[in-house]
Request: fold
Amino acid sequence: MESADKEKEPEQVPAKEEKLIEGEQTKKKKKKKKKKKKKNQEQTGETPAENTPDIEEKKEEEEKKEDVPKEGAEEGEKKKKKKKKKKKKNAEGEEKKEEESKKLEEFDKALDNSVFRKLGDWKSGPFKQTTPPTIPVDEQFPDNIYSIGEIVEYAKGSRKDNEEAKAKERLFNYDYNLMRKAAEVHRQVRRYAQSIIRPGKKLIDLCDEIENSVRRLIRADKLEAGLAFPCGTSVNSCAAHFAPNPGDNKILKENDVVKFDFGTHCKGLLIDCAWTVAFNPTYDNLLQASKDATYTGLKLCGIDARFDEIGEAIQEAMEAYEVEINGKTYPIHPIRNLNGHLVERYHIHAGKSVPICKGGPQTKMEEGEVYAIETFATTGKGLVRDDVDTSHYMKQWESNPVPIRNGRAKALLKAIENNFGTLAFARRWIDSIGFEKALVPLKALVDSGAVQAYPPLTDISGSYVSQFEHTILLR
Reply:
């Protein structure tokens, strides 16, 4: 055992501890050197480059900025981009609103018809439309309840208080609304047409613009809705059924008297309406004669009204006028072989004819019937004949099947049945259904009796004809 009285050996310092002591000594030396430098800098007036508090703070801020995550920066850039996009969208939206308001203002300008003879100004309607018209009527009337046309009371008695008549009428509300839709389209396009019809315009361009406007507003879809027949532009002595064929560049002139006549339909329910355009006051009485005659006929129409009485009244109203042209006075007469007509579904001339002169049949109008009441006033003989250059065609309503040997004629007939049915069409429309150079197959169909040609109807050369027409429903 070890006793306590033994002498102690001197303690030895480990190597690590020696190194720590040396490190501390070096640190102390460095601190002394730094202090000397500071004193020297203070004496000389210089500031330390690295150890000033301002610089240290800046370094800390820079380090903090560097520590900001990249994701945050990206989010900031995205927000900026979104703001820019919103600004662009708002600017574009404002521009569109300005354009729409300008278009609406242009459409309102069409209210003024002072450039025409014997055409009244338009009243503002319950719709918003552009110029040219582009807004379909079903967007203007989202509830699908369309404007009611002018209601004319019966000359003999009233049916407003008849409960049985009211009950019957409720059954026809669906058809009424479709007819009113077709009428609304016709009204808006007619209004637009009267804003662009001016001397110097090509007739074919006017027809295309009117027809394309109908297609846009009614959402044309073959037999569901569209044009009931081509837009007619019968000039001067031509009374009806003329439209320019492809390549016809006739121009509307200042002294022309032009009958604009086009039809619309929804599911085969037809609206047929026409008016006469003239710019020269010389023809005022000619236009007024047919206008007064048409409205006279409309007032006399009704359930149980007789055709002979209507025709006699129309002739009397028309022949009260005369017109002076180039120093010569002309009496005005109705065209005896042109009439108003009964209209049925997909059938523009449905059998009954309403005369516009004396001596008509004693046939009576019936409840629920639809008529196109039209009158033609002329300075000529009062009889029209077939002219050349046919533009209007229509599949026969009742035609016996005829063997057609021409393959292209067969194909054309199928295309006509699918696109037009028994509604009238123009020769220039055939190109739009995929047929080019269809004159030969079309003639073959006419020769076979499957399709009926409707040539222009003309009075004597040098005469002038005016026309006004409206469609009525007997309720």
About this structure: The mean pLDDT is 84. The radius of gyration is 44 Å. The longest strand covers residues 225-235. The longest helix spans residues 70-109.
